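step=predict obj=CKLF-like MARVEL transmembrane domain-containing protein 4 n=110
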Amino acid sequence: MALGSPWASAWFVFVAVTSFITTLMWSFVYLLSIREALKLPINWVLSELISTSLETFFYLIAFIVMFTTVTGHYASNVAAAVFGMFNTLAYAASSFLLFKEHKASVAAAS
């Protein structure tokens, strides 16, 4: 978040901040066992899969935009784009694992 200057790409900073907040939210859901405490009819794995997939897509767009707008603060913008690429890969791996878990839970319910 600190490397992406808001003047070069406000979109990158927006994606980084919202992904950070969303990841913190999901961490607290699991850390505080909110899933088990609420007893709501929510498919938590599917909800997290959708959230993580959207974050992956938005990070993909954000790091591409950051690579193309490397004007001004060249080094920090390139570094932000590279870290955005790493985040894209991390969120994509998480989305893949959540997809496998969701697919297994649907198959077990059938």
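step=describe
The two ends are 43 Å apart (CA to CA).
step=end
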